[in-house]
Structure to design on (824 residues):
């Protein structure tokens, strides 16, 4: 039993070391990888990018021509219109389309979505803002709702359920065919937005329902979702153009836009997206939608026109993080790493990270050799310490430290 | 020794329960008392007080007349001009001044001070943003500076000191008479502001310096500070009217603003303000400022015009915290509480809150009696449990729990 309790301590020591030491390593040795910023130039009809080369930012086009900052901005009037208007270099028309500051500004938007945005604890109480109050600004209501097996509005001040309002909204959902329990909910629970569009809720049968409060009354609209489309995440946006309400992410890594007012699903023209590992960026300007999917070692930029018809695609590839020097050295030193927090999740947990290859085995054997030498020097029996040596071979420096901190005293 | 180790455990137990149980108590019983919102109306030349109460919101002026929500908005056209314009009830002029939306909007602003603003960890690396780049927006530089015994710019990418730039800026500071080490530094280290005004730095002699970077070159201005003025805190603001750069707080609780360009220190009429206890709420509008000093049980509102002359004042008091039912009940139950975080500080620590009065003594004595009864029932010797009884007498409920969780087994 005492031996067992020592192994528990050794195990805790290994976990602690596998959390702390790699953290220290990365703080000192991490090389910041920079991903290129790729945009589409309507002037060149080609892609342009800002890349970091040898520590310097370089502006270039897809053919490799290098541009100065002002030349670069001139080729991208839809993006840098504010600067170009200030310097008087903004063209009056582009491809026959008249340019106008407020139109350009209205159509400029930027949406980013990372795996961490999905792997995150979700609120269970939401404010349903009045969408047509007749007031200039939006205001937070005095009650918050929860929606699972029914919808219930809870008054924040008294913490009691508003029975009447809850019943009215519940009935409105049921009247539109909502099947409880609710599976997903997406919305923008803030008063700092252009417009209140309420919430989009996935019901038990997989359909999406639009829920709003209009002059105190419920507004519910059912949006039929085809059988095979399993929506796993709803991310609402607040576009000045009011083009669409939300991004819908499906199980098979498709992304759909839920178009405003017509409630039609518009598929984003992308392939090869993986919501668990890729970053997504949708940048819109007056004439284009630029969709960028960025993974660990590659990026794919798809530029589409305002009808989501693909104009051009650009692929870029670089060294994967596993090939970078800091990772190669890491994998030669440590057999694994335990992270309490990971960049892809807002949950806390014990996340194991395994480096590629077996280069760490050599370091582990060196530590095992060191442990044997220490045992010999102290004239201890090798056989009684076999377990310790095995632990060191498997866990390397973590096991070595842990077995030293909690030494094996039972065979002294 | 074993007895001491038990008392160490008992103390830890007392500390843990003194954190956890009051936390639970406040979660359940804390009553929120909203502070009234006091605004100055140039329509009626009087203060308007909006006070959320148990039977809804009370809206009145300082003379006692009550108003509806719409009437309040009409009396405060400088605040609610957007809503009034939407309703078509915005006056064309007020006090002979034409009501121009852009001007009203530019002059609107608010500032708030809470003791937490001072009691906070300060960053030691700050970006010095180019103030006159000729670009539309501000952009972050690639280096950050630290300023203590000298100024040093460190390139973020390589983590190296930019020696040349550091020397130039250091010389510029020395030339204006700056005496190192710097005592305080304040600025707005973000690009999300209307313009860059660099940093205000207090030197070793108590004088104030303004440091900016203009087209790559240092700009340093010295602001002489009277001998007897000891600045303890500076908070920069980003005003669209370019009226002043920053708020200054002095050791004897005076508050000044540094007027833009002229570097004149303008004193604010906030007699009775205590920076370690009170809050400050300042609202700007086209005609002046409304300054509210908010303490635990009082509020003093001062209306000043555009040349900082006092126009009117309003004072109100309410029951102090310790007389509120939730705090009175707390004081009967617990002799003290320990908090890791308090509203007045962003630091984590062991903050003791002692209950007001001695009404907790009764409950503590009850727990002592209960402990004596428990000891007697088990036929133990009271004399050997004297220290335990003392712990319970002082720590009440917490001590009772801690001495039960870690029982006194040494006299069995």
């Amino acid at each position: 039993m005492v031996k067992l309790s020592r192994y528990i301590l050794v195990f805790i020591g290994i976990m602690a070391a596998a959390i702390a030491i790699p953290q220290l390593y990365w703080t000192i040795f991490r090389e910041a990888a920079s991903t290129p910023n790729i945009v589409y130039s309507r002037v060149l009809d080609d892609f342009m990018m800002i890349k970091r080369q040898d520590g310097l930012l370089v502006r270039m086009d897809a053919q490799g021509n290098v541009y100065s900052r002002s030349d670069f901005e001139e080729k991208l009037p839809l993006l840098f219109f504010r600067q170009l208007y200030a310097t008087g270099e903004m063209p009056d028309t582009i491809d026959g389309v008249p340019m106008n500051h407020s139109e350009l500004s209205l159509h400029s938007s930027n949406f980013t979505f990372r795996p961490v945005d999905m792997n995150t604890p979700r609120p269970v109480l939401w404010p349903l803002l009045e969408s047509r109050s007749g007031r200039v600004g939006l205001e937070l209501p005095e009650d918050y709702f929860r929606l699972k097996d029914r919808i219930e509005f809870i008054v924040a001040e008294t913490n009691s359920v508003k029975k009447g309002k809850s019943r009215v909204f519940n009935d409105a959902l049921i009247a539109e065919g909502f099947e409880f329990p609710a599976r997903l909910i997406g919305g923008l629970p803030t008063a700092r937005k252009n417009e209140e569009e309420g919430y989009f809720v996935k019901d038990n049968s997989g359909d999406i329902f639009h829920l709003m409060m209009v002059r105190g009354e419920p507004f519910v609209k059912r949006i039929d979702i085809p059988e095979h489309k399993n929506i796993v995440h709803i991310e609402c946006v607040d576009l000045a153009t009011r083009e669409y309400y939300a991004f819908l992410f499906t199980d098979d890594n498709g992304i759909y836009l839920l178009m405003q007012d017509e409630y039609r699903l518009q598929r984003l023209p992308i392939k090869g997206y993986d919501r668990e590992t890729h970053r997504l960026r949708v940048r819109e300007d007056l004439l284009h939608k630029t969709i960028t999917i960025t993974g660990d070692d590659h990026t794919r930029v798809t530029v589409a026109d305002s009808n989501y018809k693909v104009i051009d695609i650009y692929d870029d590839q670089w060294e994967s993080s596993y090939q970078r020097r800091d990772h190669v050295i890491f994998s030669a030193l440590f057999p694994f790493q335990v992270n309490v927090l990971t960049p892809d999740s807002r949950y806390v947990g014990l996340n194991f990270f395994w480096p590629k290859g077996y280069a760490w085995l050599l370091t582990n054997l060196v530590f095992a050799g060191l442990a044997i030498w220490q045992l010999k020097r102290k004239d201890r029996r090798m056989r009684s310490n076999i377990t310790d040596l095995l632990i060191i071979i498997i866990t390397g420096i973590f096991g070595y430290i842990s077995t030293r901190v909690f030494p094996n005293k039972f065979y002294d | 020794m074993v007895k001491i180790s038990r008392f160490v455990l008992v103390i830890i137990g007392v500390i843990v329960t003194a954190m956890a149980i009051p936390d639970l108590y406040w979660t359940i019983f804390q009553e929120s008392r909203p502070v009234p919102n006091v605004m100055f109306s140039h329509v009626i030349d009087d203060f308007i007080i909006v006070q959320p109460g148990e039977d809804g919101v009370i809206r009145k002026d300082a003379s006692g007349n009550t108003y509806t929500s719409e009437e309040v908005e009409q009396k405060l056209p400088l605040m609610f001009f957007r809503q009034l314009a939407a309703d078509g009830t915005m006056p064309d002029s007020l006090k002979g001044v034409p009501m121009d939306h852009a001007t009203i909007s530019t002059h609107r602003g608010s500032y708030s001070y809470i003791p937490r603003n001072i009691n906070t960890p300060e960053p030691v690396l700050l970006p010095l943003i180019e103030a006159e780049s000729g670009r539309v927006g501000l952009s972050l530089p690639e280096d950050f500076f630290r300023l203590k015994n000298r100024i040093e710019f460190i390139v973020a990418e390589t983590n190296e000191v930019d020696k040349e730039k550091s020397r130039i800026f250091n010389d510029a500071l020395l030339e204006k008479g700056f005496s190192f080490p710097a005592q305080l530094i304040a600025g707005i280290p973000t690009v999300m502001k209307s313009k860059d005004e660099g940093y205000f730095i207090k030197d070793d002699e108590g004088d104030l310096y303004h440091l900016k970077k203009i087209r790559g070159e240092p700009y340093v201005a010295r602001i002489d500070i009277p001998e007897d003025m000891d600045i303890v805190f500076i908070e920069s603001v980003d005003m669209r009217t370019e009226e002043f750069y920053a708020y200054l707080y002095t050791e004897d609780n005076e508050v000044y603003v540094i007027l833009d360009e002229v570097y004149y220190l303008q004193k604010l009429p906030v007699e009775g303000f205590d920076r370690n206890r009170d809050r400050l709420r300042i609202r700007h509008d086209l005609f002046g400022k409304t300054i509210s000093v908010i303490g635990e049980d009082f509020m003093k509102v001062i209306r000043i015009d555009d040349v900082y002359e006092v126009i009117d004042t309003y004072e109100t008091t309410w029951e102090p915290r310790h007389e509120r039912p939730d705090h009175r009940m707390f004081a009967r139950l617990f002799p003290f509480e320990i908090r890791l975080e308090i509203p007045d500080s962003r630091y984590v620590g062991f903050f003791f809150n002692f209950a007001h009065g001695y009404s907790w003594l009764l409950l503590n004595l009850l727990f002592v009696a209960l402990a004596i009864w428990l000891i007697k029932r088990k036929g133990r010797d009271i004399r050997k449990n004297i220290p335990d009884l003392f712990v319970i007498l002082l720590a009440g409920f917490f001590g009772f729990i801690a001495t039960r969780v870690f029982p006194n087994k040494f006299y069995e």
Remarks:
- The radius of gyration of chain B is 28 Å.
- Residues 142 and 351 of chain B are 40 Å apart (CA to CA).
- Chain B has three domains: 2-31+325-405, 37-107, 119-275.
